[in-house]
Amino acid sequence: MSTTLTPTVAAAAAAPAGKGRWLTHWEPENGEFWATTGRRVARRNLVFSIFAEHLGFSVWTIWSVVVVALPPALFPYSVDQRFWLVALPNLIGALMRIPYTFAVTRFGGRTWTAISALLLLIPLAGLTFAVTAQPPYWVVLACAATAGFGGGNFASSMTNISFFYPERQKGAALGLNAAGGNIGISTMQLFVPVVIAAGLVYGGLMWVPLVLAAAVGAYLFMNNLAVARTPFRAQFATVKRPHTWVMSFLYIGTFGSFLGYSAAFPLVLKLQFPNAPTAHWGAATITLAFTGPLIGSLARPFGGWLSDRIGGARVTAACFTLMALGSYGVVTAAGNGNMGLFLASFWLLFTAAGAGNGSTYRMIPAIFAAKSSDLAVAKRESAATLGIAGAIGALGGFYLPRAISDSYTATGGISTAFTWFGVMYGVCLVVTWWCYLRRRVLISQVPSLAHASV
Question: pTM for this structure?
Fold first, then answer.
């Protein structure tokens, strides 16, 4: 059933969704429509989107905690094998993000949110099997890989929410949506150790009722937007835009770092400082690992909010500068065995990466709005770019843990990896300045978007 949404039927628009519910009239840029109808509907969809995405991130990165808790006697894996278990889900999740992005424009945000939530039952079943049957390592690795289903949820959720909000509020809305999802990592790293104290199997089973609740909530209370339906050919036009690939590269530096550090931090902390402070809750041992993703998640909406006010490019440049300093701090702390500096440097990395996630995702709609005079085209291409950049950026979540593992294997430490991470952030800073902040150097020969204050 299709529903035409106008200010005079606001009450009907806010009613619980029925089967096949599509909203065929959606004008968030219209002030009267937004005040009387749009804001309420958008907020309702945002709430249930955050819930589903939160669970997606929790399931996506669950192996970062499970790996640390695997008994060596039952799972005699090397350090490299353990890093593979936390890195491979990130790779699969990155690859899943592109089809998940286009699924929203094909099936609708409400429909796909419900389906993608139910798909999380696959990795939860895989985890349950892996820790109970104790199969060969390659089977455990395959079970861990299915956690990548959770990674796709972010791309579809961000694409969907981008259609609901007006340009002036997109940074804050996308920041809240992303932060609500990102914080699922810290929620998982805080509570799963408590639950698995009763048995590893409960690390997966604890999420099943929540996943079912998310699917039902999306089905009952979310909406599909007709304006989001776009032919695949029109969406793929964005791959021809140079800024799609520039922003994808920058997102490797921000989100790739956040995801990679979130996955690797528990194991890195255990390897570098085995005697790091822990808290005990009954038989459970809780480490400081959850604090990093928590700080980064909370910083993300701030990055989006600040970008709405001073421009995303400025915020992004500042974040890369801070991340380079954080990398230097980790190298110094690892060399001196200074746990305080180590933790502070990682917290700085998480904070800057989180804020940078918000600022880069705010830049994308602003860039396409500045490059196109057709608002509908700009929205369509920016939504597709959010998914593509999200997929490519998430590859950093695979690369970073693997680089840390390779550094540890080759040198016995992590300093080499973080030295190169610092170089990468320097390159990202230069690219940001060249494309979006440069106002004088070779500006007549190679224009930038500094004038648009993206």
Answer: 0.83
